[in-house]
Amino acid sequence: MTLPVLSNLTSPAQMAPALLAEWFRPGASTTAHHVDNLFMVISVICTFFFVLIIALMLLFMWKYRARPGHREEHTSHHNNALEITWSVIPLILAIWIFFQGFVGYIAMRNAPANAYEIEVIAQKWSWSFYYPKEGITSAELHVPKDTPIKLILSSTDVIHSLYIPAFRVKMDCVPGRYNELWFEATVASDKVEDGKWDNDDQTENVYSDGSATYKDAAGVDGYDLFCTEYCGTGHSSMITKCVVYDAAGFEQWKKTASDPRAQGTPLEVGEKLYKRRGCAQCHSIDGTDNPGAGGPSFKGHYGEMVEFTNAEPHKMDAEYIRESILNPQAKIRKGYKPIMPTFQGQLNEDEIFALRQYIRSLNEEQPEDWAPKEGEEEGDTAESSEPAETSGAADAEEASDAEGAADAPEEPASDEESTQSET
Amino acid sequence: MIAQTDGANFSTPSGTRIVNPQGPSYLTGGGIMSWIFTLDHKRIGVMYLVGVLTAFLLGGVLALLVRTELLTPEVDFFTNFVQQTGEEPNIAAAKDAYNVAFTLHGAVMVFLFIIPSIPAALGNFVLPMMLGAKDVAFPRLNLASFHLWVVGALFFMTALLTTGLDTGWTFYTPYSTTTNGPVIAATLGVFILGFSSIFTGINFVVTVNTMRPKGMTWFRMPLMLWALYATAIIQVLATPVLAITVLLLTVEKALGVGIFDPALGGDPVLYQHFFWFYSHPAVYIMILPAMGVISEVIPVYARKHIFGYTFIAYSSIAIALLGFLVWGHHMFTSGQSNLATVIFSFLTFSVSIPSAIKVFNWLATLYKGNIHYNASMTYALAFMFLFTIGGLTGLYLGSLATVVHLHDTYFVVSHFHYVMMGGTLVAFLSALHHWWPKMFGKMYNELWANIAALLVFVGFNVTFFPQFILGTQGMPRRYASYKPEFEGLHALSTFGSYLLGAGLTLAALVLVHSLFRGRKAPDNPWGAATLEWKCCSPPTHHNFEVDPLMGSPYVYDNFVEDPNGDGYYEVLPDYKRSGVGAPDEQPAQT
Fold first, then answer.
1. Per the database entry, which stretches of residues form a coiled coil (chain B) (predicted)?
2. Does B263 touch chain A (CB under 8 A)?
3. Furthest-apart CA pair in chain B: how many Å?
4. Is A180 in a helix, a strand, or coil?
5. Angle CA(B282)–CA(B284)–CA(B287) in degrees, nearest 5?
6. Which of A77, A101, A196 sits opposite B309 (nearest CB)?
7. Segment holding A172, helix H or strand E
8. SS percent in chain A: helix, strand, coil, step 5
9. Least reliable range by pLDDT among A63-77, A337-351, B206-220, B335-349
10. A417 and chain B: CB distance < 8 Å anywhere?
11. Average pLDDT of the residues in A210-223
């Protein structure tokens, strides 16, 4: 193809006038320049035509304004040569813009064969990123830089859309089908100089909607990740981060992430899960219940007998909390809507345990520490995170099976599915 | 009921002055029932006007509520409208209230205001008169269309206001099939409103085809009629698809038949195809009549023949036809195949050309004119400015590489407001000021109407231009709360919306004031050459007591300004009677 392709040009920052550069924030992926270059060029074309049309309009408005002594002059009613010219020139420009957009789009849609795959499960109103090789589920998207990443998008309820402005990527998460999206990040998120993409400078701007999504995610350096398809009450807080590491940092993260026990006490892990996994959007921790659109508070109900619309009254205990997380529609509290999504396969037993300890702590119960795993010393977590480091899929799966079976001795025999995401 | 003429045509030095017979106004006579069951297209038009303006007021108040919430990043304003359950504000319920508000704003503005605004309200009034006819082809169908609109609107509003619809005006599945809102009632409302639109469309197609006066060939019609005709074609062809789509949605929600819901074996993207197959052409239902208005208004106030009549006429038809082929550009990120995406992008660019042609033609019409800055012209020039921005920003959204970033952000919000509001609403206001003296027989205060127009223009730009920047920086649509870094631009936008609201309020006050205190309107206050100005203001029940003299709709030479400042009167130059005039300007014998 001999046609010039715009997207091969250099970085947009060099092409753009200062104003446009400020307007259009810096990209951080290998495909961002496809978007940025074309945006700049369309802006130049638009500015040219806008200035031309408006300047002529203003000139005519002044020069031919009605005033004493001024009369209209008869000019021809049409001029085919002129009219064809101003039809054909925009047509050629439009086709050229189409072509440039097409070239960039194809590059942005065709993932390299060696891309690292991550599954994205969107649901009202949180994101889950599942790393099949390592068996990690995370509330933020963690990726290594300079590596093509392929996201496989799905939704468990309504349509959501994953959007990372810094990478200029967006794709809908449609229930019933898998969509794909790929990108390759070029700048580690803790290296971002232009602070506009992350929240660090806004930590004191506590979000008043109780979701704490922004506030909490601000604890992580990362690029904003938005939901851009309207999905109901919590749409505007369905926001998380994409954290980009260098290769060593990503290995380190995988090591920590694969084991909740490595991340702190059950109470700390539970609190973090509460904020990051969307619990906070419906369940308060100050004893305020939100009937109707929300959910009961985590505070003030532990150990109570609670009533349901579709089941016998039951005590709010370990078993009930676990069931509410994994199969929330089994028992619907009186006065509330059945809107809670399931976290089956998204939270492992350690995480459910941690969440429960967090709820207990809110109700002035003494939270328990991690129960020792079989064959381990209490609190020793080094062993469990090792298999992930090897990143051999077979090893990781074996390890996860073994631990899953041995895990969470307090819990009743867990469902088969619930062991899926464990390590 | 025969109107008395207040004088015969008489000779002046430049020719024979034509005097329109005067008669009783169509507005007077008869009680309330004579309005409700009227077959007079003008009364139906006026009732439509009252209806759509009421809807616009409601939609506008909702827009201001939405903008007020967005003044600050946190959800705070809407907490005033919801029940408190504890000490802390109930944020979840406030967010739901916000979602209901933006849904209502969109649904009311689209289905109750923009779609019927120019075609049904103003089109009903002027279309038969532009043809020199006494009424539309099917007056009873016309009345039925209005009654259906009222029923649909009441149904729609009751459903929306009592229980809270929160799906967005697009009713995307599976959200709409799983939410607790009154989706079935609302979609049935849309269904009924759709039939109202179809009836109007059929009526206009038949009227234009069969009722043109002798001598008015297709290419001697005013361009407003081309635009309304093209619109009517879309209404007749596309609206049934919407009707089928909302019926399927109702069937799925009520009976659990799997069509769109993946849990039942359906496909949510199929809904989007169906929905946009109507709703994209519907965008042209909204904008084409606006283009027709501008093609009428600019020549009148510039005192110039429209430039490139044929290109403008054909471009209306081209837009109507090409508009059916581009619906897939609403689904560039939905996961439709890359091939479909590329084809839809290409077709989208093709539809931009006819719009560009029109702008250039309007511009050329101003050249060497004698431009009168009446309020109607001010709005028309504002339209050219705003529509140019709206059209050009469409290039970013048609182009595949850039749309991936911009889709579902404020860039899109701003783009369609520039086209729908900066385009259609401003053209509607232009048309309203243009035809107001004919409709109500009263002149409004030009100075205050112009001040209102400037306020609307400035307020509009302050409201929506910042939203382009917000969208480019990644601010998603339909967010009740947003990241603090976007606060400055959002606040600017909100202040702009108050300015815009003030401008629109002033425009309304000026017009209402004219009804009570306005000077009596002359028959032809602007010196326009189309036939609706060749009867008295306001017209009689039968519009024309004698058949009007058919001339070119864009030749103003025969219209002479009244020395007493009482509008224009038409003279029939004596030389023309001897057959010297150019053939296309020669008045045809009626």
1. none
2. yes
3. 88
4. strand
5. 120
6. A77
7. strand A169-173
8. 40, 15, 45
9. A337-351
10. no
11. 48
Q: How many beta-carbon contacts under 8 Å exist across A and B? A: 306
Q: What's the rounded Cα separation, in Å, for the pair A327 and B133?
A: 69
Task: Give every strand in the sheet of B15-18, ordered side by side.
Answer: B10-12, B15-18, B568-573, B559-561
Whether A210 and chain B come into contact, CB under 8 Å, resolves to: yes
Q: Which B positions 473-492 lie with beta carbon below 8 A of chain A? A: 473-474, 476-485
Nearest CA in chain B to A36: B402
Domain residue limits, chain A? 18-63+86-109, 116-191+216-258, 262-362
Interface predicted TM-score of the whole assembly (ipTM), two decimals: 0.89
What CATH number belongs to A262-362?
1.10.760.10
Q: How far apart are the first and last CA of chain B?
A: 23
Tell me if chain B has a CB within 8 Å of the CB of A176.
Answer: yes
pLDDT one-digit tens code per residue, B61-99: 999 999 999 999 888 898 888 877 666 777 888 888 999
Residues in B touching A90 (Cβ below 8 Å): 352-353, 356
Is A236 close to B93, i.e. CB distance below 8 A? no
CB A64 within 8 A of CB A70: yes
DSSP-based three-state secondary structure for A185:
strand
Q: For residue A179, give the 3-state DSSP assignment.
A: strand
What's the CATH fold of domain B38-572?
Answer: Cytochrome C Oxidase; Chain A (1.20.210)
Q: Is the pLDDT of residue A172 over 90?
A: yes
Beta bridge partners of A123: A126
User: Which residues, other chains included, contact A188 with Cβ-Cβ below 8 Å and sequence gap of 6+?
Assistant: A145, A244, A245, A246, A249
- Using the Cβ of A48 and the Cβ atoms of chain B, whether some distance falls under 8 Å is answered with no
Residues of B whose CB is below 8 A from A171: 333, 335
Question: Considering only CA atoms, which of A316, A219, A329 is closest in space to residue A275?
Answer: A219
Rounded Cα–Cα distance for residues B432 and B296 (Å) = 12
How high does pLDDT run on average in chain A?
Answer: 76
Dist. CA A31–CA A194, nearest whole Å: 19
CA A100 centroid distance within chain: 28
pLDDT for residue A412 is more than 70: no
A134 has a chain B CB within 8 A of its CB: no
Stretch 161-200 of chain B: residues touching chain A, C-beta under 8 Å: 166, 168, 172, 174-175, 178-180
Q: Strand A240-245 to strand A141-144: parallel, antiparallel, or no bridges (unpaired)?
A: parallel
Phi, psi of A142 (to 5 degrees): -110, 125
For residue A186, the distance in angstroms to the closest alpha carbon of chain B comes to 17
Nearest CA distance, B180 vs chain A (angstrom): 10
* Rounded distance between C-alpha atoms, residue B315 and residue B319, angstroms: 6
Greater pLDDT, B526 or A266: B526
Contact (CB<8Å) B302/A72: yes
Q: Give CA torsion, residues A213, A219, A220, A226, to 10 deg.
A: 20
Exposure on the CB side of residue A276, measured as CA atoms within 13 A: 24
Q: Evaluate if residue B231 carries a pLDDT over 90.
A: yes
Q: Cβ–Cβ of B408/A170 closer than 8 Å?
A: yes
In the block, tokens 């009254």 appear at A313
Crossing angle (nearest 10°) for helices B223-255 and B309-322: 10
pTM of the prediction? 0.83
Token output for A184: 């390759």
Q: Which chain A residues contact residue B87 at CB under 8 A?
A: 288
Q: How far apart are CA A366 and CA A360, in angstroms?
A: 7
B365 vs B295: CA distance, rounded Å: 9
Q: What CATH class has A116-191+216-258?
A: mainly beta
Judge contact between B130 and B222, C-beta under 8 A. Answer: yes
The pLDDT score that the predictor gives to residue B85 is 67
- Interhelix angle B375-398/A32-63, nearest 10 degrees: 160
